[in-house]
Amino acid sequence: MKYNWHWQVLLETEPGGTGTYLHYLLVGLGWTLATALAAWVIALALGALVGTVRTTTARWAVRLGNLYVEIFRNVPLIVQMFLWFFVVPELLPEALGDWIKQMPPPWGSYVPAVLCLAIFTSVRVAEQVRAGINSLPRGQRMAGTAMGLTQAQTYRHVILPQAFRIILPPLTSEFMNIIKNSSVALTIGLLELTGRARAMQEFSFHVFEAFTAATVIYLLTNLVVVLAMRALEKSVRVPGLIAAGAGPQAGH
Amino acid sequence: MFAGYDFDVIQRSLPYLFKEGMVFTLTLTAIAASGGIVFGTLLAMMRLSALKPVSMLAGGYVNLMRSVPLVLVIFWFFFLVPYIGAWLIGAREPVRVGAFLSAAITFTMFEAAYYCEIMRAGIQSIARGQVWSGYALGLNYWQTMGQIVLPQAFRNMVPVLLTQTIILFQDTSLVYVISATDFLGAASKVANRDYRLVEMYTFVAVVYFIVSYSLSLLVKRLQDRIAIVR
Q1: What is the Cα–Cα distance from B181 to B23, expressed in whole angstroms?
Q2: Residue A11 DSSP code
Q3: Binary contact (A183, B69; C-beta < 8 A)
Q4: Are B201 and B27 in contact (CB under 8 A)?
Q5: ipTM tops 0.95
Q6: Can you list the pairs that B120-124 forms with residues at least 24 positions away whose Cβ atoms lie under 8 Å?
Q7: How far off is chain B from A211, nearest CA to CA, in Å?
Q8: Cis link prior to A137 (omega < 30° from 0)?
Q9: Which of B63, B186, B202, B229 could form a disulfide with B21 if both were Cys (CB 3.0 to 4.6 A apart)?
Q10: Which of B10, B72, B188, B213 to mutate to test the interface with A (most CBs of A within 10 A)?
Q11: Cα–Cα distance between B116 and B135 in angstroms, integer?
């Protein structure tokens, strides 16, 4: 049993005529990053908000935050993708739903994919933010109160600046997760890196060349992210504190 | 909002959804979890080995698996397993492998990398002195591991291992990309046949939520119960 490797296929023109297969895959990487980055910005904002709220003394807000986290943590990502893509436009007012359904490709899948990934990841960010805040000594909060700060001021000037610096390492791995998870968007028709590797395999029949190329591109992307984040972690580290997160965690 | 919502289609397809789909999902989860934990524990032992080549091999495997998306890994194995099968039995053509077997191998191999990291943390949580006392008593490596370290490591890590298994249960829905008939796959087939996507996908989400959420509550309870007071 032998597989005939044919690496030159990467330099052949893809059937769409936009360039070589390698170029085709790299454009896919562009879509992967565009999806992941846009979703990451929303996820950070939402996650920071929900995670912070869950550590406050406002009970109804804590309940609401817990509900949000439990809902989006216990439904598989691909099912959430389908909900955003197939179900949400149907439940919206008809004019808005039709407008969404008629968005030209690739935006018709890009927008739902970004929203889905953003909310899915915001839950995980929220957990990290909460763990980071809870890992700070209680005295910090008390000192804030003793100095006459309100709860909001304590968060703004004492708790959050420290918490965010502490949770940077676990957030790095969440960022790498969002890059990987963006591949699920291929199920709603977004031609990102994995989707394009799959398409290349169908056009050219060179299965393993396509998947090896995609794997290598993912590995290089990871390497760049890890190196960049390590530099950032070094510059914002809180002296005297070691990284704290949600501890040994299960993940994707 | 629920006007025109056809609950009947769900009721009609319940036997198919659960007898075909859910059984597939649960069997796959059970196989991948047990295989993954065994293989993952071996990988963790390899990673902590004093022999450099052994620990580097295991570390390389784990890092590779953790750096690529699961969807891509599913595709990889879907096409790779027939070739490996042919190579094993010496056939000239790639052998035919069903979606279930392919998925079972994929998830076992993929999850092993994640279980490995959990077990590694578990093994490292055991005080070094325990290993030394094992050796001092004249036990060899396998005896020390099997009778002293691993039982405690498992106990410490049971909640995390179970949480990872809940995630595995959710992740098996990705076999959709190789058109397997798992719970989501079955629902999607009905949804497309009857053009009832809204009903079916909402139902799928609700079922996944109920199962995962109740399991996670059980894990939480277990965690409080078995926590060792130190």
Answers
A1: 10
A2: G
A3: yes
A4: no
A5: no
A6: B120/B44, B120/B47, B120/B48, B121/A248, B121/B157, B121/B160, B122/A248, B122/B44, B122/B153, B122/B154, B122/B156, B122/B157, B122/B160, B123/B44, B123/B45, B123/B48, B123/B149, B123/B150, B123/B153, B124/B48
A7: 7
A8: no
A9: B186
A10: B72
A11: 24
Which among A79, A218, A252 is the nearest to B67, CB-wise?
A218
Residue B213 contacts A where some CB pair is shorter than 8 Å = yes
Q: Is the Cβ–Cβ distance between A73 and B169 less than 8 Å?
A: no
d(CA A11, CA A14): 9
Query: What mean pLDDT do residues A182-186 have?
Result: 95
Q: What is the pLDDT of residues B184-220, one digit of tens each?
A: 999 999 998 888 889 999 999 999 999 999 999 999 9
| Residue B228 scores a pLDDT above 80 | no
Nearest Cβ partner of B72 from A194, A222, A250?
A: A194
Of B182, B47, B66, the closest CA to residue A177 belongs to B66
A65-107 confidence digits (pLDDT tens): 999 999 999 999 999 999 999 999 988 888 888 888 888 888 8
User: Is A5 in CB contact (< 8 Å) with chain B?
Assistant: no
Helical ranges in chain B per DSSP H? 7-15, 23-47, 52-67, 70-89, 99-124, 128-136, 141-144, 150-171, 183-194, 197-226
Q: How confident is the model at residue B230 (pLDDT cuts 50, 70, 90)?
A: low
- Average model confidence (pLDDT) for chain B? 91
Three-point CA angle B219, B222, B223, nearest 5°: 85
Coil vs helix vs strand at A74: coil
Distances (CA, A) of B33 to A121, B101, B204: 24, 14, 22
Closest CA to A46 of A124, A155, A158: A124
Q: Is A112 in a helix, a strand, or coil? A: helix
Distance of alpha carbon A121 from alpha carbon A46, whole angstroms: 9
Interchain CB contact of B61 with A (< 8 Å)? no
Tokens of A63: 């309940």
Residues A244, A164: Cα–Cα separation, whole Å: 10
DSSP H stretches of helix in chain A: 21-53, 59-73, 77-82, 88-91, 94-101, 107-134, 138-146, 151-154, 160-166, 168-181, 193-204, 207-236
At A240, is the pLDDT very low, low, confident or very high (cuts 50, 70, 90)?
Answer: low
CA distance A48 to chain B (A): 23
pLDDT computed for residue B90 by the predictor: 84
